[in-house]
Amino acid sequence: MTVPAEAGRTRAPGLAPGRLLTRVLLACVLLLAAATRLANIPGVFVGGEVLINDEDSAYHWHRASLAATRYPKVHSFDAYTNYPTGARMMWPIGFDLALATLVRAVGLVTAGHVRPEVVGVLFDPLLGVLAVFAVYFLGREMGGRAGGLAAAAVAAVLPILTGYSLVGRIDHHAAEPILAAVPLTLLLRALGAESQRARDRLAAALGLVMAVSMSVWAGSIAPGLLVAVCLAVVVWWPSGGVDPDRFVRIGQRTFGIAALAVTPIVLIHPWTADGSFAYFAPTWLQPFAYATAWLSFAAAGLAARRWPERRWVPGATLVAVPPAALAVGVALFADLRQTAGAVLGYLGRGDVQISQVFESYPLLSFGWGGVMQQYGVIACGFPLLLAALVARCWIGPAAGKLTARVVLPWFAVTAAMAIGQIRLGSQFTPVWCALWGAAWVYAARGVETRVGHPGTVRLGAILVGVALMAPTLRLHRVLHLPPQPDLVFTHDALVWLRNDGASPGDVRQPEVRPRFGTMSRWQLGNWVITEAHQANIANPFAQAEVHLLGVREAAAFYLDLNSDSAVRRLDRLGARYVLVTPLWVDVEDLARHVGIAAHRFVDVPARATPRPTPAFYRTANSRMLVFDGLEVDLEGRQLPPLRRLRLDFESVAVGEEPGWRGSFCKVFERVAGARVMGNASAGERVDVTLYLVTNRGRTVIYRDHAVADESGRFEIRVPYATEGHASAVRALGQYQLAAPSGRVTVAVAEADVQEGRVVRADLRGSQP
Description:
Blueprint: H1 19-37, H2 41-44, E1 45-46, E2 49-50, H3 55-69, E3 77-78, E4 87-88, H4 94-109, H5 116-157, H6 159-162, H7 176-192, H8 196-213, H9 221-236, H10 245-267, H11 285-306, H12 312-332, H13 334-344, H14 352-355, H15 367-375, H16 382-392, H17 398-420, H18 425-451, H19 454-473, H20 485-500, E5 517-519, H21 525-530, H22 545-558, H23 563-573, E6 575-580, H24 587-593, E7 602-603, E8 611-612, H25 620-625, E9 632-634, E10 637-639, E11 645-650, E12 654-657, E13 660-663, E14 666-670, E15 674-679, E16 685-693, E17 699-707, E18 713-718, E19 730-731, E20 735-739, E21 742-746, H26 750-755, E22 758-762
Parallel strand pairs: 5-6, 15-22
Antiparallel strand pairs: 1-2, 3-4, 6-14, 7-8, 9-10, 11-14, 12-13, 15-18, 16-17, 16-19, 16-20, 20-21
Helix pairs in contact: 1-5, 3-4, 4-5, 5-7, 5-18, 7-8, 7-18, 8-10, 9-10, 9-11, 9-17, 10-11, 11-12, 12-13, 16-17, 17-18, 18-19, 22-23
């Protein structure tokens, strides 16, 4: 049985502007979208520099810029991340390859006059405008041209979309709304196509889009599987006497092509080599899921032909095949068993790494005001919009009911995703905007039908829409936002590491293992590579276990209460440099990383502000950041200096810990330490002193001591060189050794410190 030509689509002819006017208005909306996404230009182009916004953007740019020079190769393994093992990249190559292609194209067209970084920071705003364009077409499927324009206008200013595509960001999140809007648009068009040939073409295009999306973001499997769910719904619940076999055929073609097309995309990524089914990277999970969906629709088609009089059989087959296929899969593949559990628990994932990522917070954790800030005042109408969509499934023309029955599960599932994690709003926002556009059109048309005066009604509808979006529009103004504070506050330290620290190798050869690594908190891991050109140990790629290993190593190091074991950890990892920054606000998260009870470091008196315990100041982080790695008295106990860690640099930016204020970031270097050996009277205490001045002009005093044994021999390991080391932290003179039997000065060369050489000092017979 055939359906009307407009089946699956909804039109509002009374409000539809002409094509020319539509194009003009759409151009204006796209210009508005560009303006909201370029508002932070003053915060990105500063003093002749191009500042990248955040840590993920930093690595995207590092990867894309390398791909532009080694085109078309995009590295999928980086020995400079998760040192010493290196790690595979979870991100698919598509986003970075697309940016590298654009960089090369702009370079050729402009003969190299446009800096590549400029192209990089403008790529996300471009994707943001294209996302608004995609929302227009989705809105048009639901509410005609007027509905499409209204949907695009909302998408142009919603912060949940503009935030991810703001100038200065270089992140695949900006592409996600496109990857969500296009499949739903193609599905609606396929359902409403008149001829079988057109439906087959649209289904094939939908399958290809779903497959190609995997090269950009592995989470694009969510829209792909939603296509299967929505098709299954209309097979069970068709509208207007439509033969559900039509929808079964669309599903067969869509998922058959998707399963075939995604396989080569998966094969070019390294995770497949282990037969991985992980959900966070292109793996065998995507072909398995799409092949299962194809099998479901193929089996439903066979059932419909075998039992044509039993219309419930195809629907029952669609429901039965996926769990059966999953049961077989998890029985055969252990990795798929783990993935199934991880996928089911992803939205509520409570492990410490996810809980530290702002984008993973539940939407409602910021209160209703935060929700409205992200989704506009129209968020208050969410229940009304949902109720109207549900009612539309039963009320109105057959075409409108079919559209509503497709959109309802998409809307409900993506809304749950967006509520569960802020970042998944990129999947929800396109359908959110499109439905509001359609609702606006139908409300205006209803008023126009009742009262007449079309011109007045349409003008009033526009004014109401502008009034509703005005609070959101006011959020967009010219900004001067710098990148993330962690980068700003540590930038001079990272630059010092790059220009004056030892080089581990060539960061532009990620396949070659560097000579040593740099210990930092995971938030700084990508900056360690991109800004300092060093190899990181902990990094933000912390969904895969291989990356979490580095995060846990860093947490254990910074919280270590034993300085000797902390240094042994650096020895084992091959870390030469250490970046220390304030961690009080994250100390409980770090403790959870390594299974330490947080109350060991945090005291929470009844109805009082949490405060650090004495143990907090004995951690390796506090010993370096607060006490400069020097000798210190804590709790009536004298702790020796960190004899194999020396202060090399301290940032100009100021940071704070409870009871302390000083440089936000300090760079320490792990050294062998020169072994000052000599003779004194038996049992004498030998004190060593060295005056140092930091790059900020701050004078510190390095002190240590040893006790001569029965034969009068003593040994003191010291980390600072007094000559031959051009460091930001300089020695003021030589080491002074003093004992009751005498005093001497000792010069220590840089080679002595690096190689652990012996330096002789004899106090017997010296000047007392």
